[in-house]
What we know:
CATH superfamily of the largest domain: tricorn interacting facor f3 domain
Organism: Reichenbachiella agariperforans
Oligomer: single chain
CATH class of the largest domain: Mainly Beta
Protein name: Aminopeptidase N
Keywords: Aminopeptidase, Hydrolase, Protease, Signal
Strand order of the largest sheet: 4-7-2-1-13-17-15
Number of helices: 17
GO molecular function: aminopeptidase activity; metallopeptidase activity; zinc ion binding
Shape: elongated
InterPro entries: Peptidase_M1_dom, Peptidase_M4/M1_CTD_sf
Amino acid sequence: xxxxxxxxxxxxxxxxxxxxxxxxxxxxxxxxxxxxxxxxxxxxxxxxxxxxxxxxxxxxxxxxxxxxxxxxxxxxxxxxxxxxxxxxxxxxxxxxxxxxxxxxxxxxxxxxxxxxxxxxxxxxxxxxxxxxxxxxxxxxxxxxxxxxxxxxxxxxxxxxxxxxxxxxxxxxxxxxxxxxxxxxxxxxxxxxxxxxxxxxxxxxxxxxxxxxxxxxxxxxxxxxxxxxxxxxxxxxxxxxxxxxxxxxxxxxxxxxxxxxxxxxxxxxxxxxxxxxxxxxxxxxxxxxxxxxxxxxxxxxxxxxxxxxxxxxxxxxxxxxxxxxxxxxxxxxxxxxxxxxxxxxxxxxxxxxxxxxxxxxxxxxxxxxxxxxxxxxxxxxxxxxxxxxxxxxxxxxxxxxxxxxxxxxxxxxxxxxxxxxxxxxxxxxxxxxxxxxxxxxxxxxxxxxxxxxxxxxxxxxxxxxxxxxxxxxxxxxxxxxxxxxxxxxxxxxxxxxxxxxxxxxxxxxxxxxxxxxxxxxxxxxxxxxxxxxxxxxxxxxxxxxxxxxxxxxxxxxxxxxxxxxxxxxxxxxxxxxxxxxxxxxxxxxxxxxxxxxxxxxxxxxxxxxxxxxxxxxxxxxxxxxxxxxxxxxxxxxxxxxxxxxxxxxxxxxxxxxxxxxxxxxxxxxxxxxxxxxxxxxxxxxxxxxxxxxxxxxxxxxxxxxxxxxxxxxxxxxxxxxxxxxxxxxxxxxxxxxxxxx
Length: 740
């Protein structure tokens, strides 16, 4: 008995491994998601008492080229729409990530390599002659009385003299300055680029003013420190901004220019007005020839460009005397926004040919799949080695060589980044998710719609992300270096794959394979419309996609977003059956239980998984009376037998090698050369997450089977997706061969 017990105990791990572990892949997300309430409903829609704060800014700012300093003062009006009383406000000081006491260089892991370039060594030692961070000059109330404030790294708490009650507003002022960094040396989402050939600068300015942090029903204050990667959570509001720059600078900005007659020449103004009705091609407002002349003169006078922007969550601008400027009108419903590009001559001819065209294509596609673009302009600005987005404006790379030559790779890369960054106007500038916490909600969703834009307008462009097969290498990688999609920005290891590629691939699988384009597009647009100009959370997206489609997707979110499992379905076995017929009509009737595998004569150590030469037979029997229970009517056994006597029954055995449950897509090829494809929902795995058998009934004899023939599920091993196939020797077979 003891030996039997020991044998049983030794066998248990093997049985457990063979049967797999039940991981509840089809259980509902349930308490994983926050409990619905009056602010956010179980359907994924904003609740009857949904609220969000409003922050309005009036800003005067000057950009000084001599010392690269931004100096400004702002009046902030904060409206408390929450049910809570607030005794203080949190303000983001993002430039402080470059201050001397910043945590950013302290938490960045680094190492010494055998060879260190000057640039890499400078970064390693933080050896920059640069005094970064905001210099806060004053924080005062509406009567210019000082307010107490406390700065904690990249956050500043402003203490209010009185509690701010529901429905009340408070106005206060901040004066500040900071020095713009050289992006060549220090990198960053904004900064300046220097052009030594003509001794000029190009400024792309963002995170340039103290901005209110978000206070909402999900997080309370989103005052997580800014370390450099996790982007921004911001409130909507109205802006009035006066930008003072050198007089020969051209300014590209969030918002609508209020004083074009004051800042543009007569020629520029006439071209600007013409662009507003040019729907077929861009109008060049500032030409390359005009820019070359300005590069030589360098005005020392100043001009102030005034802009207004309504219902935006941020404000950015770019400024340079090097800017060529073109614009084209776009027809979107009853709106005609201007698609515009600003670029130095170093960007030509590529930028003049492609940039504004890409902006137009992006606005059209995204408006179709999300919400109609609501803003008056959409701007693409060229500067080196960047792709970064803000409301109505983005900064993009893509520079030809000194002879104006460029490769297809550079061209497609530039077009891709413009589509992506302009697309960010929708995610998260309009559908305003919390980037500091959930990178995938803006980057992943945006990358997915980017892929739809590229397929619609640039079919010849190689697609980098947005299809299932493009994420396979990442999905099958070492799990030590992979994180679930539902991971905070600062903890993601492979940022591009995790936050951009995998979510985009997941949505592609959802659209093309699981839901179908019609259901998916309706649900995706519903989510966009529900949460336009609001603050959606992941649960709001998950719930809306199910609510608007009637497709239960909890298993999908669990597998793709909460785990690091991957898709790897193996077609382990195919058994061909036919129904038994009277003995006298069959010659050489095969014995019951005949196996469908045979040993290949070609090599000794290979196996051939092939169809049996003859079908296995199952016996037809008339239904016994006891099977009918209380029913008085009967199945017509003779008719059933007649209907199936010439049918081919194929029993397929599938195993889930990767852990991620997935639909089964089966392509059949028949003896006559015809083929068909069947889609089996992922719920086929609901009773056994590790192995399933499925019988298919065919009129024709099958000669070939392929699982996931178009590679639309991100299956990481397609070698075991075909039948018949040659199976590689196992490690054990090789071990036996070595021993011989």
